[in-house]
Specification:
This protein has helices at about 1-25, 30-45, 50-65, 65-75, 75-80, 85-95, 100-115, 120-140, 170-180, 195-210, 220-235, 255-270, 290-300, 320-325, 345-355, 355-360; strands at about 155-160, 185-190, 210-215, 240-245, 275-280, 305-310, 330-335, 340-345. By secondary structure, it is an alpha/beta fold. Among the domains are: about 50-140, Four Helix Bundle (Hemerythrin (Met), subunit A) (Up-down Bundle); about 155-300, Rossmann fold, CATH 3.40.50. Helix 8 (about 120-140) runs parallel beside helix 14 (about 320-325), helix 11 packs parallel to helix 12 and helix 12 crosses helix 13 (about 290-300). The longest helix is centred in the N-terminal third of the chain and has 26 residues, at about 1-25. The chain starts with a helix and ends with a helix. The structure holds guanosine-5'-diphosphate and magnesium ion. Guanosine-5'-diphosphate binds next to helix 9.
Length: about 350
């Protein structure tokens, strides 16, 4: 009797499990068809090209500034979680790791204390930070006109200076690619005549960009190469002329004299040459970049700064201090080695990416 009950029970269990297995197996194939196709297709087709482009750059900028955001700006929210004075001390310490000038740190802490009631969560704190940083950048940045607008009297001449390894040659290569890609006739002068490798590196960029290049024998006088370059650019009707220079240490007075001469000599070809003198700054240099920049500014009268290698640098925020103290605007910002990783510096994009505001909206 017991055996019969057990067998009966066993059959019932096997039948139930079998039915359930069969049912679940049968219903499986239907699901994937609906899930996969539709959303991907509509997104790709519907998005207008321009939106996709903008998104890509702000995304790259955001990724490029992630180190600075994680190590500095993003930590402020946690530090300011409490309302006592020690939280402001902690915030101050974090800001110093960003290599900001002491006065700027003091001003920001004061602003945070003054506006304490304006932020009660992370998103509102980020807004206050972004407003503060913008208020420091905007007065200098707003005086800046579109630097890569074609000059009425061709060519527009841009001289690029900076210490060794800052990213001068790469910046010229990227700008040449951008300008030539827009249909401009571009001539590049290889005035870093001290290193054959530097000239070869520039040649590779120019070949890729579709720009022409003036090169002289190794060790030739850089100012002579600069003169030849701009004179040829005038003669041949180039739209833009980009002049690369050597970069030893900014403390070497010989370099400053040589650069000043190079600039002067270009002015002999036509009045107003060069129209722009841009200093390329490696973001990792932090506060030290200010001393560099002051030296270059004194010798050459800078019209713009290019802030490179912001990717991977916790000090990417130091740009704010440099712009404010030097009163020279940033024209371009670089967050990587590819051509598209160098883009015009837009205050709103930069501060929002730096503090992570765009993510919390
Ligand atoms: N990660 C990163 N590397 C960069 C950036 N700009 C330039 N570089 C690299 O920095 C190095 C030095 O650049 P280079 O243009 O030769 O410097 P120069 O001595 O001032 O001419 C090269 O390896 C570049 O690829 C940037 O924005 N991000
Ligand atoms: Mg170089």
């Amino acid at each position: 009797m017991e055996i019969e009950i057990l067998i009966g029970f066993g059959i019932a269990v096997v039948t139930a499990v079998g039915a359930f297995w069969f049912k679940s197996k049968k219903s499986k194939p239907a699901a994937p068809d609906i899930k996969f196709e539709a959303p991907q297709k509509t997104e790709a087709v519907a998005a207008p090209q321009i939106v996709v482009e903008t998104k890509k750059w702000t995304q790259r900028l955001s990724e490029g500034l992630s180190r600075a955001r994680q190590d500095v700006w993003g930590k402020l929210a946690a530090a300011l979680g409490t309302t006592d004075d020690s939280s402001f001390e902690a915030a101050e310490e974090i800001l110093y790791t960003a290599d900001l000038p002491p006065q700027l740190v003091a001003d920001l802490i004061e602003e945070l204390k003054r506006r304490r009631s304006d932020f009660n969560d992370e998103a509102s704190l980020k807004k206050v930070l972004a407003e503060f940083l913008s208020s420091r950048l905007n007065p200098v940045q707003s005086i800046h006109r579109n630097p890569l607008q074609k000059s009425e009297n061709k060519p527009k001449v841009i001289m690029i200076v900076g210490v060794n390894g800052a990213g001068k040659t790469t910046t010229i290569g990227k700008l040449a690619a951008k300008l030539a890609g827009e249909g401009n006739k571009v001539l590049v002068g290889a005035c870093d005549t001290f290193r054959a490798a530097a000239v070869d590196q520039l040649q590779v960029w120019c070949d890729r960009a579709g720009a022409e290049m003036v090169r002289a024998k190794d060790g030739a006088d850089p100012s002579g190469v600069a003169y030849d370059t701009v004179a040829r650019a005038v003669k041949e009707g180039h739209d833009f002329c980009l002049v690369d220079t050597a970069g030893r240490l900014h403390t070497a007075s010989g370099l400053m004299d040589e650069l000043a001469k190079t600039k002067r000599v270009m002015g002999k070809v036509a009045e107003g040459f060069p129209h722009e003198v841009w200093l390329v700054i490696d973001a990792i240099t932090g506060q030290n970049a200010l001393k560099q920049a002051q030296e270059f500014h004194k010798a050459l009268g800078l019209t713009g700064l290019v802030f490179t290698k912001c990717d991977g640098s916790a000090k990417a925020g130091s740009a704010v201090g440099i712009v404010q103290q030097l009163q020279v605007p940033i024209t371009y910002i670089g967050v990587g080695e590819s051509v598209d990783d160098l883009q015009p510096f837009i205050v709103k994009e930069y501060v929002e990416a730096l503090v992570g505001l765009e993510k919390s909206l």
